[in-house]
Write a structure and sequence with these properties.
mainly beta, 6% helix, four-stranded antiparallel sheet, five-stranded mixed sheet, 2 domains, Neuraminidase, 3 helices
C-alpha cells in the first residue's frame, strides 16, 4: 500500500535522503522513490543528520519523554541514546570528521533561549557518554565544513529563539537572526578556542528572518523571507554576491540542510532538492511511503479512557454517557449498552436524561451548527424505542458549551413552548445574549429546561 505523508526535516548524503513523517525517521533514495521506516519510535522526532559517508545517522527523539539525541548505524538501525538532558528542546546539526555529533541544547543553562552548541561522543569517535560545550557562545544553529586540506569553517545562527520562521512570517524584530562565519577549529579540537575576532557577521542589513545556515561549495546558503516568502539564498563568504535560488510563493522553504554540495529542504510537506548553487533550480522529489499512515489507521479504543459527560436517570439504574462524540445508554447492572447516536463525522455531546419516560437529549453538530436532539434512551420506558430521534433548535442555541443538570419544569415554561413552536430563540431566564445579536457562545442556557418544554409542546401540540 502506498501512502503520502507530510515530510519534514530532510537531510541528504550519498544516495540516501532522510526525513521525518508519522513520528518516525524514514529513508528514501536520493532521487525519489519508495521510502521505508528507519525508526519505530512512534514519538515526536526531528533533525536527522547523516555522517559525511552516510553510514551513521543521528536524530532527536522524544520516545523516552523529553527530546534527546540518538544515533544508529544505517546498516542495522539499532539506536543508541547519547544524551540525558531532560530539557524542552534539542537539535542535531551534523557530525564532525571524528564521528562526534554536533547538537544544540539548553542543558545546564538558566533560560530556555540560552542554547549552546555541543559535540557528543559516539561509538564512531571512540565511545559514547561524554560531551563538550563548544566555545561559540549562544547559538541557535550551526554548520561545519572541512576542506580537503583539513581547514574547518563554521557558520553560526544567533539572536533567535530557535523557532521556525514559518511560525511568524515576515517578522522584522530583534530576534530575526544573525549570520556569522568564522573558523571551526573549536568544533574539531577539544582544546581549541573559538576566537571571537575570527568571526564576521554577514548580511546584517537583510530585513527579515534568516534560518538554516549552510556552508555549500564555498558559499554561505541560508533561508530568508525578506522578499515576502521563505526561500533559499546564498552569498559569498565575505557577504557579497547575494543570490536567490528558489522561487516559492506563499509556501515557505523550511528545514534546509546540506551535504556540502547539495541542498535539500521541505515546502508544503514535500521534499525539494537543489543539486547545486550554480546549476538549475530545485526539483521536487517524488517520494512515496511504503506503509499506511499510522495516525489514520482505525483501531479499537476503550470507552473508559474517553468518557465525557454523563447523566443518570431518575431511578439510578442507567446513565446516558458520552464517549468520543457518541452517546450511549448504559445500564448499571444487567443488560447490554445501547448506542443512541453514533454517526461518523458528527459529534454528539452533553447527554441529559429527561424525566422518567426514557428520553435523552444531547447537543449535535450534524447540520453544521449546534442543535438539540431528542431520542429514546431506555427501551423499556420509551414510548416508541424504534422511533427516530428528533432534532430541534438548529442554529438557535449558539454554540453549546455545556449543560446544567436541571430538567425540572418551572413557572414560565409555556412561554418557552411557544417560542419553540414558532422557531424563535427562546429568551429563557439566565440566558445572556451577545449585545450585537450575532452567533456566538450562549452561556447560562439550561438545556434541560428548554428541552423539557419543547418535549411537552410536542405532546400538547
Amino acid at each position: 500500500m502506498v501512502a503520502q505523508g507530510y515530510l519534514r526535516f530532510p537531510h541528504i548524503a550519498g544516495d540516501l535522503v532522510a526525513f521525518v513523517t508519522a513520528d518516525d525517521v524514514w529513508l528514501a533514495p536520493a532521487d525519489g522513490g519508495r521510502a521505508w521506516r528507519f525508526t519505530a519510535d512512534q514519538a515526536p522526532v526531528s533533525c536527522p543528520r547523516f555522517t559525511a559517508d552516510g553510514t551513521h545517522l543521528a536524530w532527536v527523539s522524544s520516545k523516552d519523554g523529553g527530546p534527546e539525541v540518538y544515533q544508529a548505524s544505517v546498516a542495522d538501525g539499532a539506536g543508541t541514546r547519547l544524551t540525558y538532558w531532560g530539557e524542552r528542546a534539542a537539535r542535531v546539526c551534523g557530525w564532525t570528521p571524528a564521528g562526534e555529533v554536533l547538537a544544540i541544547s539548553t542543558a545546564d543553562q538558566p533560560f530556555r533561549y540560552a542554547t549552546w552548541a555541543r559535540a557528543l561522543s559516539t561509538d564512531a569517535s571512540g565511545g559514547h557518554g561524554s560531551e563538550r560545550v563548544l566555545p561559540f557562545g549562544r547559538v541557535s544553529d550551526l554548520s561545519l565544513a572541512v576542506s580537503p586540506a583539513g581547514q574547518a569553517s563554521a557558520a553560526l545562527l544567533t539572536g533567535t529563539f530557535g523557532t521556525d520562521p514559518a511560525h511568524w512570517k515576515r517578522y522584522r524584530g530583534g530576534t530575526a537572526g544573525r549570520l556569522w562565519v568564522g573558523p571551526g577549529d573549536a568544533a574539531l579540537s577539544p582544546g581549541a578556542q573559538a576566537g571571537g575576532a575570527g568571526f564576521r557577521r554577514l548580511q546584517a542589513d537583510l530585513p527579515g528572518h534568516v534560518d538554516s545556515p549552510m556552508l555549500v561549495g564555498g558559499r554561505l546558503a541560508f533561508l530568508s523571507d525578506h522578499e515576502g516568502t521563505g526561500n533559499v539564498y546564498s552569498c559569498a563568504l565575505d557577504g557579497s554576491d547575494l543570490r536567490r535560488h528558489t522561487d516559492h510563493d506563499g509556501w515557505y522553504a523550511r528545514h534546509a540542510s546540506t551535504d556540502g554540495e547539495r541542498v535539500v529542504y521541505m515546502s508544503a510537506g514535500e521534499i525539494w532538492l537543489l543539486p547545486s548553487l550554480t546549476g538549475t533550480g530545485p526539483q521536487r522529489l517524488q517520494i512515496t511511503l511504503g506503509s499506511p499512515a499510522s495516525g489514520r489507521a482505525p483501531r479499537l479504543i476503550t470507552a473508559a479512557d474517553h468518557v465525557g459527560s454523563l447523566s443518570v436517570d431518575a431511578a439510578g439504574t442507567a446513565s446516558a454517557v458520552e464517549v468520543r462524540g457518541t452517546v450511549h445508554w448504559l445500564t448499571h447492572r444487567d443488560g447490554p449498552a445501547r448506542a443512541l447516536r453514533v454517526v461518523p463525522g458528527v459529534r454528539a455531546r452533553f447527554p441529559q436524561v429527561l424525566g422518567d419516560d426514557g428520553l435523552v437529549v444531547w447537543a449535535t453538530d450534524a447540520d453544521g451548527v449546534d442543535a438539540l436532539e431528542i431520542g429514546g434512551g431506555d427501551p423499556v420506558r420509551s414510548l416508541d424505542p424504534a422511533a427516530e430521534s428528533r432534532r430541534l433548535a438548529a442554529g438557535q442555541v449558539g454554540r453549546v458549551a455545556g449543560r446544567q443538570q436541571h430538567c425540572r419544569r418551572r413557572p414560565g415554561w409555556p412561554a418557552l413552548r411557544r417560542g419553540c413552536l414558532l422557531g424563535r430563540r427562546p429568551r429563557a431566564s439566565g440566558v445572556r445574549q451577545r449585545p450585537d445579536d450575532r452567533p456566538g457562545v450562549v452561556t447560562g442556557l439550561r438545556l434541560g429546561r428548554l428541552v423539557a418544554a419543547c418535549r411537552a409542546s410536542r405532546r400538547l401540540g
